[in-house]
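Here is one chain, start to finish.
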Amino acid sequence: MRHALVCGASSGIGRATAVALAASGVRVTALARRADRLHALAEEIRCEILVADLDEHADLLAKVNDLAPFQILINNTGGPKGGPLHAAAAEELRAAFHRHVLAAHQLTQVALPHMRDAGFGRIINVLSTSVREPIPNLGVSNTIRAAMAGWAKTLSRELPPGVTINNVLPGFTDTERLDSLRSGKAAKTSTTEDKVQQAWMSQVPEGRLIRADETAAAIAFLCSDAGGAVRGVSLPVDGGRLRSI
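Its structure:
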């Protein structure tokens, strides 16, 4: 049985991904900081749990090294706070790079020898449509997501046969993260959350928020044998919001 480490599994897309992979017959270890939510997830899908913080690399790696080998790695964590890039402190960029790029890189280094031995590996990064089209007022997030995409594309040319890396780019997805962005924008622009969402949905041909389980289904496909020929891509799951080809 293949083993997956799913980061950020306590809510949103991470949680939905843990559920989808478990349903496909994969053994799941769900990683997050919130132990209570992980225990609730474990009761639902009978997964293993790992309480860890992606900001605390020494503790994270010590715990991950104690896991059984895993052939599937889902790099997923909450994005940086909003704001214009020119106003961001250097520490905000440093912390975001540490949490996203460096954590994903070190987890990949732990997993890769086992993936190579198994002749099978899947690394999926949950990023953002900002990889293709930067999003206004998310300056630090735009910068770090693009860095992750460049890191992943580089690795896609280096990984051995059978081991792939891809990015999934969620659009406006019904998660706690989006709730926070919606309320923050409403407060900053002195409008209502309903009007903020209406403006967002005017950009989405599908005309609705994307469900976390829809994004998780795309991730599960990329993790399957059927997804083995897909390598080094950034796949939007955004209801058609992106304008670029």
